[in-house]
Amino acid sequence: MAEPTGWRPPREATRTAGGGSAAPPDGSRDPDRAPWHSRRHGPGRWARGPGGPLRRAREDRLVGGVAAAVAARIGRDVTTVRIILVVAAVLSGGFVAAAYVVAWMLIPLAGTQGSIAGKAMADRRGVAAVAGFWSVLIVVRVLASVFHAGGLGSLLWPLAVAGAGVILIWRNAPADEQAMIRHQVRPLLGLTTGSRRTGLVIRLTVAAILLAGGVAALQHAHENIALLQPLAGVALLISAIFVLLGPWWLRIARDLVVERQARVRAEERADIAARVHDSVLQTLALIQRRADQPQQVVALARAQERELRSWLFDGRPPGTIDEAAMTLAGGVRLIQQEVEAQHGVAVEVVMVGDCPLDDGLAALLAAAREATVNAAKWSGASVVSIFAEVEPAEVSVFVRDRGQGFDPGAVPADRKGLAESVRARMARRGGAAMIRSAPGEGTEVSLTMPRAVTEPSQA
Amino acid sequence: MSPKPRVFIVDDHGLFRSGVRSELGDDVEVVGEADDVAPAIARISESAPDVVLLDVHLPGGGGQAVVTALKPEHPEVRFLALSASDAPEDVIAVIRAGARGYVTKTISGAELVDAVHRVAAGDAVFSPRLAGFVLDAFATGSGPQRPALDPELDQLTMREREVLRLIARGYTYKEIARELYISVKTVETHVSSVLRKLQLSTRHQLARWANERRLA
C-alpha cells in the first residue's frame, strides 16, 4: 500500500517548499496559493485543467469522483471518461468496476492528504467485516455450484474486490466525504422521509427484477425435477454453514453497530463541548475580566443563564432567536434579553401559554417593550417582572416594577412616552392599556389585546 | 411569628448551602445539611426538622425521590422546593410528590425566611414562576377539551385563578388581599386549595401537559 504515495505528488509539500513563486502546473494560481479551505470552491476549475495532481473531485462526482480525477489528469471531458468507464466495466465483466473502487481507495480526495486505503489498513473491524463478506461470497459460490448456476463464477472476483473496497471506503472515508456518500445513497435506501417516493420506486424496481429472475430460474429448473432430490442435502449443507459461520457473522455485525453508536455518541459529545465552549466558557472568561463591574457581570450571567436554559429545556441551540420571535413567548423573551442587556436590570418573565404573532399581538409586544424599558430606566427598581397570559379570547401582559412610582395624574402632557407609545398603540388595534402607579409603590402597566382568530386546536 | 423553625438544607452545591445558611441568619435554626438523596433521607429522619429546603435537581434521583421516601413515615416534615433550573415538569413533579411550595434560587434572603416561616406554619408558598406553571397546566384554553373526571379537583375556581394570576404578576399575599378585597388568610386558603388540587388531581391534561413539555 506504500506504492500509491510514490506516484502522487504531495500537494501540501510542494506548496510549502515552493512558496508563492512556484506556479502550479495546472496554471490555476489562485486556488493553489489560497488557504486550504478556499480550494473547496474551486475544484471545478482545476479539475478541468490538464495535468495537476490526481485528486478525486468533491462536487463533480457521480460515485467516487474517480472519473473526474482521471479527466482532470488527462485533460478530457468528464462525461467521455464516464462513458468509457461504464462501457469498459460491462465489457470486462466487472473487473474495471473493481478497479474503479480500488482507485477510489487509493486516490485522495481533493483538499486532503492521504488516501482511504491508508486509513483502512489500520481498521481492524473493517478488515473483519471484509473477511465476513468474503466468507458469505464463498458460501454463495459453493451453493451456486451445487445448483449448477455458473453465472456467478466470472463475477466472483470483481465482486469480492469491489465489495471489500466499498466496505472499507464506507468505514474509512473522511467525515465530509462520508456525508457526501450518505447523501448519494439516500434515495437508494429510501429510508429518509424526504425521498420516500423515489426510494419506493427504486425498491419496487429492484424487487421486480429479482422476482422475474427467480421465476425464470424456477421455470428453468422445472424441466429437471430430479434437481429436487438433493434438496434435503442442500438444506442440510446450508444449515451446517450457518451453524458454523452464523455466530461469527452476527458478532461482526453487532460490533459494527456498537462501534457506530460509539461514534455517534462521540460526535454528540464533541457537539456539546463546542456549544458549551462557544457560550458558557466564553461568558465565564468575560465575567472574570469584568469582575470589577458588578452590573455587567450580572447582565452577562443572566444572559448566559437564559441562553443555557432555552437550550436545555426548549431544545433551542444557543444563538438562534429569529424563529422564536414569531411567537408571543419568543417576543417576550426578546424583550427580556434586550432590556437586560441594555439597562442592566433583571427582567423576570412568567409566561402562560403561547401563540403565533399577528398585527395586534405585535403591537401588544411593542407596547410591552416600551413599558419594560420605561420601568428599567425610570423606576429605580432592580427587577422588572413581566407576566404574559394567552387565553382563548385575549392576550394580556403585565409589566410590573417595585420602584419609586409616580402620580399618573401629574405627568405633563408633553411627556409622550407612556401615553402615546403604550395607550394609543394599543387602542389603534382594539386593545387596552391601564397604568397603575403611586409614589413609593411602584408601577404596573396592564395590557390586553383581543385575539383575532381563535386557535385551530379549539375547533 | 411562631418560634424558630428548624430547617434542613438539601443541595448538591456546598457553596449554595452555606449561602442559604447565612441568608437565613438567626430567624431559623439550621439543623443539618445533605448533598444527595440517600444522606438526605437518613439525616432528615434523624433530625426531624420542621422544614426541608430541597433542591429540585440532585445527582441521585432529584428532590422528588427525597419527598417520596420520607412522606409516609414523617408526614410532619414539610418540604419547600428550591431550584435554579426549573423545567416545569420537574417542579410540578416535586410538588405532586408532596412539597408545600416552590421558590427560585434568585429569591432574596428576607423573602426566603418569610417563605420558610409560611411553610412551617402549614401554608403553601408559590413563586410567580410556579403560579405560571400551574396556570399553564390547568389552562382551559389549550388543546381539545376533555371532560374533567373530578370537577372539584380537576379545575381551578375563578377566584383561585385570579389569585394565581396576581401571584404570577409579582404581587405579595398582602397586595393580593387588598386587590381582591379579601383577607390574607383567605388568600392563603386559596393557595393551599390550589396546591391540594395540584397534588391530588388525576386530570389527564396535567399528565399530558407534562409530557408535552418534556417532548417540546
Describe this structure in words.
The complex is a heterodimer of chains A (459) and B (216). Chain A is of the alpha+beta class. In chain A, 61% of the residues lie in helices and 8% in strands. Chain A contains 17 helices and five strands. Chain A has a five-stranded mixed sheet. Chain A is elongated. Chain B has a six-stranded parallel sheet, with helices on both faces. Chain B contains eleven helices and six strands. Residues 141-147 of chain B have low confidence and may be disordered. Chain B has helices at 14-24, 37-47, 63-70, 88-97, 109-120, 128-137, 151-154, 158-168, 173-180, 184-200, 204-215, and strands spanning 6-10, 29-34, 51-55, 78-83, 101-104, 125-126. In chain B, helix 6 (128-137) crosses helix 8 (158-168). Chain A binds chain B through residues 309, 312-315, 346, 348, 350-353, 385, 387, 389-392, 398, 400, 402, 444, 455, 457-458, and chain B through 85, 87, 106, 128-129, 131-132, 135-136, 139-144, 165, 168-170, 216.
Secondary structure blueprint with pairings:
The complex is a heterodimer of chains A (459) and B (216).
Chain A: H1 3-7, H2 11-18, H3 29-33, H4 43-48, H5 66-74, H6 78-91, H7 95-106, H8 116-121, H9 124-146, H10 152-172, H11 175-189, H12 196-222, H13 231-289, H14 294-314, H15 328-343, E1 346-352, H16 359-378, E2 383-390, E3 394-401, H17 417-428, E4 432-437, E5 443-450
Parallel strand pairs in A: 1-2
Antiparallel strand pairs in A: 2-3, 3-5, 4-5
Chain B: E1 6-10, H1 14-24, E2 29-34, H2 37-47, E3 51-55, H3 63-70, E4 78-83, H4 88-97, E5 101-104, H5 109-120, E6 125-126, H6 128-137, H7 151-154, H8 158-168, H9 173-180, H10 184-200, H11 204-215
Parallel strand pairs in B: 1-2, 1-3, 3-4, 4-5, 5-6
Helix pairs in contact in B: 2-3, 3-4, 4-10, 6-8, 8-10, 9-10
Question: Helicity range of the residues of chain B?
Answer: 40-55%
Average pLDDT value of chain B?
82
Globally, the shape of chain B reads globular
Oligomer: heterodimer
* Number of DSSP E strands of chain B: 6
Order of helices and strands of chain B: EHEHEHEHEHEHHHHHH
From the spread of the alpha carbons, the general shape of chain A counts as elongated
Helix content of chain A: 55-70%
Strand-residue proportion of chain A: 5-15%
Structural class of chain A: alpha+beta
Report low-confidence residues of chain A grouped into runs of 5 or more.
1-49, 190-195, 319-324, 454-459
> Ends of chain B: how far apart?
44 Å
Mean pLDDT of chain A: 73
Measured distance between first and last alpha carbons of chain A:
69 Å
Strand order of the largest sheet of chain B: 2-1-3-4-5-6
Q: Summarize the biggest pleated sheet of chain B.
A: 6 strands, parallel
Strand order within the widest beta sheet of chain A? 1-2-3-5-4
Taking the sheet with the most strands of chain A, its summary is:
5 strands, mixed
State the largest interface.
A-B, 24 and 20 residues
